[in-house]
Specification:
CATH class of the largest domain: Alpha Beta
Number of domains: 2
CATH superfamily of the largest domain: Alpha/Beta hydrolase fold, catalytic domain
Oligomer: single chain
Structural class: alpha/beta
């Protein structure tokens, strides 16, 4: 009897406790899930932010001023963007070409199969269409292709090359990384950023893919170096303007539906390009308006489609480019060398008959004597188009790709950044490393303006919803839970966003008394509603870094929380790989306002991003250019010392990596 009564009593107590906790969790969930930001607010903010940071075209009044600018800009883009890191060695390697078998054409030309090495270990399959009879010097065309899985076997590209050969020209049809024969996971364009993380430009692979083709054409006996053209559709059009504006050996260019200004791109989401179209920091040196103008005074045909269903629609994409370029062509007195063609039939994303014939006419104007008739009408050759297998070019076994190149680069990283050997050396080491880290992640000491949206008093707790505005550019949502007996403040960030943080809020509220839950850039409610990772790429292109922005915002929240509270004791907690990474960077750089850092489910090493073959479209914040070249998580942890750092739910890899820090770091725990 007494035993039964005791069991019943305990059951009543547990049931009441469970019911109380359930009620409290419902309250937490309601408050954490409530929208604070305006609909699409983060999307509009990043559009405005990126557009405002695109470098404008310089105001020049003389040809000398322009040429000084153009020469310096070409040099800086090549040195600082295209050929950064190991790519600076790739650019100087000799051209390697292997000629294979020959296919007979349909009359008057032949097709020679070949492969050339773009970067060490990465061979590009290609086809050279050449006239059967070659005498003297003739025009040559580098034919690039875009995002077409058929690659070099695309029928519209074959027809274009055949027509060039039938007109007595040399036509090189190259494969593009990720397309045609070079399809596969390791060639995905979003894997290029694995090289960026290692401090080597992934863009350099794309650029050398095209530039080695140009080198090859110019090496041929019958190529007239004064009559070399480049053309391509879509991604091939983007490659065309990148290569042609930066390599003046190109004498004429025709990008087709290939690009728009960075300002246009962030305003028209369908124009946002892949990694190779928005390389890190390019917009800090030049917009695509600059690249277009840098073609002057060489002949340029800008082809766009009136109803483009993919990207770069003529009505909005073309005018800013023409306006920028026309002024520079006028300075040269060569306004008639800048041409535009808008396709209306079919008007969609294409390089079909109308656009091809516009290119043939442009070749006639640029490369042939105007006193001699040049027929720009297409020569019918549909029956001469070959299938994919027939045009296949043998490639070496184990041909390199972005992933294999990155694995090779990462083997010896980080480099040149040894740990301090003693506690006496630690402070000096930290000062030097913080300066370097701030530069790498583009950290900013942000000013916070807080606006209370709503405050609710529930029993012994206040719940306040805040908008925190940073430097008049970014707005971040915060939910603050406070009890009167608060002893410390926990600032909480979670991968899945604050709406999923009920358990964490309950736990930390019991121990600390005050919990500030924040969704920094790319988390929770601050996630970009449309094409999110492409805007993250755009952010890097204009000179910022996603993880740097996240860390700057988190650090600013911690400063605000410390200043606002009576106890001044702030603990930062990150849940998940992304949150842990951003919080670790924030704590490494914010030395005053964060007394303790607790991380859950952290990566063991930044090298895992490459080892596990991640791509930037899935986790853009991890691909900070050059970070792994100089820092791993262990180095960031050293910057937290002597404050307390705890890795919860840590992997064996993390425990192994952190073990050498024990002697330097008394307040390091690995659970």
């Amino acid at each position: 009897m007494n035993g039964s009564w005791l069991l019943s009593f305990v059951g009543m107590i547990l049931g009441a406790t469970h019911g109380s906790q359930g009620k409290e969790d419902t309250l937490f969930q309601e408050q954490l899930s409530r929208d604070i930001l305006e609909l699409d607010g983060p999307w509009r903010e990043i559009q405005s932010y990126c557009a405002s940071r695109v470098l404008p075209l310089p105001k020049v009044s003389t040809l000398q001023e322009w040429e000084t600018f153009a020469v310096k800009t070409r040099e800086r883009i090549l040195d600082e963007i295209i050929f950064a890191g190991e790519a600076s060695l790739w650019r100087d390697l000799p051209l390697r070409v292997e000629w294979l078998d020959t296919l007979e054409g349909g009359g008057g030309y032949r097709i020679r199969k070949l492969r050339y090495e773009a970067v060490p270990g990465l061979w590009i399959p290609a086809l050279l269409y050449e006239p059967e009879i070659l005498e003297g010097k003739v025009p040559a065309v580098l034919n690039l292709n875009g995002h077409d899985p058929n690659g070099k076997s695309a029928d519209y590209k074959q027809i274009r090359c055949i027509n060039q050969a039938k007109r007595g020209m040399l036509a090189l049809n190259t494969e593009w990384v990720g397309m045609g024969q070079l399809q596969g996971s390791g060639y995905s364009h979003y894997k290029m950023n694995q090289l960026d993380l290692c401090g080597t430009s992934g863009q350099g692979v794309f650029f050398l893919n095209a530039q080695r083709g140009l080198d090859l054409l110019l090496s041929l006996e019958h190529t007239d170096p004064q009559r070399v053209a480049v053309t391509g559709l879509s991604g091939g059009g983007c490659q065309t303007i990148q290569l042609s504006s930066l390599d003046t050996r190109v004498r004429m260019a025709n990008p087709v539906a290939g690009y728009s200004s960075f300002i246009t791109r962030v305003q028209h989401t369908k124009d946002l390009g892949d990694s190779e179209q928005t390389p890190t920091d390019l917009a800090t040196l030049a917009d695509y308006t600059h690249l277009t103008a840098m073609m002057a005074p060489r002949p340029l045909l800008l082809t766009y489609n009136a109803k483009d269903d993919c990207c770069f629609e003529a009505g909005y994409a073309l005018p800013p480019l023409v306006e920028a370029a026309q002024a520079i062509y006028d300075l040269y007195g060569e306004k008639n060398r800048l041409h535009m063609h808008i396709n209306h039939n079919p008007g969609t994303h294409n390089y079909l008959l109308d656009n091809r014939q516009a290119f043939y006419h442009m070749l006639g104007r640029a490369f042939f004597d105007r006193d001699e008739p040049f027929d720009g009408k297409e020569i019918p050759c549909e029956q001469e188009v070959r299938d994919f297998e027939t045009l296949k070019v043998p490639l070496p076994e184990g041909n390199a790709d972005f992933h294999s190149l990155a694995l090779e680069l990462a083997k010896d990283l980080p480099r040149g950044n040894p740990f301090p050997q003693s506690l006496q050396d630690l402070e000096t080491w930290q000062q030097e490393r913080r300066t370097e880290l701030e530069s790498l992640v583009r950290y900013k000491d942000m000013h916070v303006k807080a606006k209370a949206v709503e405050t609710i008093h529930i029993e012994e707790m206040d719940v306040c919803h805040w908008k925190l505005m940073f430097d008049s550019s970014w707005t971040v949502p915060v939910v603050e839970f406070s009890r009167k007996d608060a002893k410390s403040t926990v600032v909480l960030v979670k991968d899945q966003g604050r709406a999923s943080a009920v358990n964490e809020v309950r736990f930390h509220l019991q121990s600390a008394g005050q919990v500030v839950v924040v969704d920094p850039f790319y988390f929770g409610e601050s996630r970009i509603s449309q094409r999110d990772f492409l805007y993250a790429l755009a952010l890097s292109c204009v000179g910022d870094r996603p993880v740097g922005l996240q860390a700057s915002q988190i650090a600013a929240v911690c400063r605000w929380a410390r200043k606002s509270s009576a106890h001044k004791n702030v603990r930062l907690v990150g849940h998940g790989q992304r949150a842990s990474f951003a919080c670790l960077v924030a704590t490494a750089l914010e030395t005053e306002s964060i007394q303790e850092l607790i991380l859950h489910q952290s990566l063991g090493s930044l090298a895992e991003v490459i080892e596990q073959d991640w791509s930037v479209d899935k986790e853009p914040s991890f691909f900070c250019f050059g970070l792994l070249e100089r820092f791993d998580l262990t180095h960031l942890a050293c910057l937290v010392s002597p404050r307390s750092l705890s890795f919860q739910d840590s992997s064996d890899r993390l425990k192994k990596e952190m073990a050498p820090l024990r002697a330097l770091f008394e307040n390091l725990s690995l659970d």
